Amino acid sequence: MSTGTTPRTPRATPETGTPETGRPEAGTPETGGPETGGPEAGRLASGRIGTFDLVFFVVAAAAPLTVLAGVAPFAIGIGGPGAPLAYLVSGALLALFAAGFTAMSLHVRNAGAFYAYVARGLGRTLGVGTAYVAVVSYNLVTPGVAAAFGYFAAGSIRDSTGVDVPWWPLSGVCVLAVGVLGWLKVTLSAKVLGVALVLEVLSLVVMDGGIIGERGTAALDTASFAPSTLAAGGVAGMFVLVIGAFTGFEATAIFAEEVREPRRTVPRATFIAIGFLAVFYSLGCWLIMGAFGTDKAVELARAAEGPELTFRAAELYAGPWLADAMHGLIVVSAFAATLAFHNAAARYLYALGREGLLPRRLGAVSGRHGSPGGAVVAQTAFNLAIVGAGALLAADPYGEVFLWTNSVGVLGIMGMQALAALAVWAYFRRDRHGLSAARVVWAPLVSCAGLAVLTVLAVVHFDLLTGRTGAVNTALLVPLPVVLVAGLLVALRIRRTDPERYASLTTVDVERD
Predict the structure, then answer these.
(1) Among 149, 188, 345, 504, which is most exposed with the fewest C-beta within 10 angstroms?
(2) pTM check: above 0.85
(3) What's the start-to-end Cα distance of the chain, in Å?
(4) Tens of pLDDT along 379-427?
(5) Which residues pair with 12 in a beta bridge?
(6) Is 348 in contact with 156 (CB distance < 8 Å)?
């Protein structure tokens, strides 16, 4: 929140585009407003999201059950016994990133989080380029996860009834349901995500309890946490899979305009989400390996039955009922992740529409619900188009629609994280605003270096994400640099033709100290 001790500089309002001076009135998004504050014209409803609502958004986006059932076995197979330690190391790196990222959130509160941070730290031109990458990344992840929902749902229906249902109508229902929830009050989405997340976590806790109850200390091989395990072959590829499992936690800042007490809520929710995911992934991965013995688990993970490793552990140590329940809950997990990424993607579209960097109708807000209505409709239409294209091309919903779109999206988000970390350092370089050097200098620089290395590794090992090689991967990698350059060119054109507008970019809903 603004302290009210520093004068505001003139800025353009989203409603009129004319300069505005002086202090905001009580109840506006700048002050956070009352907890029950309703939406103003052209603005998202403020004060509706609490700390744990925000945690549900970002942890549900990470889809912990899907990660431990669908990704962790591959990480174990590629990197060997060090996979549990890799999740902790990745969590520590992202905690360093979050230290600076949340420090920036104290001063810049904008629904286009990465865009606003890079613009404020590294310049508006690069910020606009980052904005376009963000739009592509988040908007690609959403329909991909919806396709995974259709894939998992079709499998569950087939297993329980013997009826083969095409994946794409199920994905279409998911997209429409998510669109409706995205249009309604954001707190409703938080409740849905909270229920889904609790069910996911409970199923995994039951599995972990069954493993420990039967195998005892034999399931707890501390050798998995020896640093030497990270010197094994394949560790680089393992980290590409592991770091991607945290994707979505950074969305805490995207909702900063809508949370209660953003100066406390955003940092608190970010660290809770990262800490929970790091410990939960590491513990879950460790116990899955402990269910079979470390060496045997690595062998199984590398074999054809690797993708079923988690379900086999659940069946062996809790019973077939849990394995069946987890197969069903993956459908719930995919729906929750679709909803969480839809909300994040819609807010990026809204932020850029509000700035005029995309059609301004995307900046329209639902007067009744305070949601980014124009962006929700556009994002829903895009999701349906991707699902429809996948159906027409007879694409594999998981191996192609999901993996390909999410590989591009995750890579884009990782690259933006590295840029955002550098932007934090640049923003606080001359004035730390009373914050420690550890938080706003060293943490951003170390995390920037780590994330940059992981981004390069993701490009080098892109086949691990897509399951393809050659021309397919090249075609999938091209859009990110293309949209980055397009954004840079748009920004340069605005700077040349309309310097006043260029100077006002990212000043909407900026939180000043």
Answers:
(1) 188
(2) no
(3) 8
(4) 999 999 999 999 999 999 988 998 899 889 989 999 999 999 999 999 9
(5) 19
(6) no
